[in-house]
Amino acid sequence: MEIKKEFDRLLSLCICVLTVAGACAADWVQGGVWTDTDGNRINAHGAGIMLHEGIYYWYGERKGKDTYRSPGVGWECYRTEAGGVSCYSSRDLKNWKFEGVVLQPDTIDSASDIHPTMVIERPKVVYNDKTRKFVMWMHIDNPYYSAARAGVAVGDSPTGPFTYIRSERPNNSESRDMTVFKDDDGKAYHIYSSEGNSTLHISRLSDDYLSQSGSFSRNFSGRFREAPAIFKHDGKYYMVTSGCSGWSPNEAEWAVAASIMGPWKTIDNPCRGKDADKTFYGQSTCVFPVNDGSRRSFIIMFDRWNKNDLIDSRYMWLPIELNGDSMIIPWREKVDVYNSMADIAAE
Ligand code: DGJ
After folding, report:
1. DSSP class of residue 96?
2. Do the Cβ atoms of 139 and 175 come closer than 8 Å?
3. In a mutational test of the pocket of ligand 1, which residue from 142, 145, 149, 303 has the highest number of ligand atoms less than 8 Å from its CB?
4. pLDDT (tens digit, 9 = 90+) per residue, 66-121?
5. Distances (CA, A) of 191 to 4, 291, 334
6. Cα–Cα distance between 247 and 279 in angstroms, integer?
7. For residues 56 and 318, what is the distance between their CA atoms, to the nearest angstrom?
8. Interval between CA 325 and ligand 1 midpoint (Å)
9. Whose CA is nearest to atom 3 of ligand 1?
10. What is the percentage of the chain residues whose pLDDT exceeds 90?
11. Per-residue pLDDT at 6
């Protein structure tokens, strides 16, 4: 009888462990429900992932519960209340701890750029080694996406709190989809869709990263590229962008340059596999480095938008395969980067 009891106890323990492991693995399917260490859905869209002192920080748009369509706008302008910017941290890229809403929306001042009625998209954070501040840039807009501005906030720690400073039209130009890139020499660049989204501007930031330096270039003129995700490898700069079709997926494109300011050479669609012409139903948002065994490689992150219920938009991570002068993003059903992640050292 005692033996039977012990057997039953062990059996239920095994079932329990297997259930937890099974749930975890299922969560890391591309476009599946990805949860944090508390079991809550990760709510951080249009993300940027920053590696700082051996810890990854995932920043993203905190979408509100209800999705609605902005009245009077011709295109499918679906949106939610702007909930500020969320941050999650992880050492292994698998277990993500919610660090809170590190840029809080301003719920008091209805004229504020970060009032919930506004748009806060694609936040990206970089660390300034000189000032020892964490600087966040983001797309700020009104409910009709006609303000086309860039906002900047600053914090003393990667987990904030970040203090909102101001928004601007960088170099007196429109700024919508955007990212920020910090180069090896410590210079940082703000890359944003401008001129009615027809042209991508690359603008060097000031030394403290809090404003534009005045030096910028115009790229991909007339090509209408959005969602820039950029990285550097072996002295060359690589960029993946999407086309312009609101929340609906389209074909990605990659480009390469010897200098970040350009000229950029557009190559082709890097995606391979089923639905590659629709970027696997995703849209690029950032690239982050991983340690793939002995060498540095890169993962590209995509949003899989659900325009009817934006908070339920999902995420995808796919490997970037660089080979000589070619770049390929192959489809993978599951996220399979973990084994090489656990021992990533501070870079
Ligand atoms: C496409 C952009 O990439 C998204 O960040 C968002 O601004 C949507 N457009 C809005 O339709």
Report:
1. -
2. yes
3. 145
4. 999 998 888 899 999 999 999 999 998 889 999 999 999 999 999 999 999 999 99
5. 66, 26, 30
6. 13
7. 17
8. 30
9. 227
10. 82
11. 54
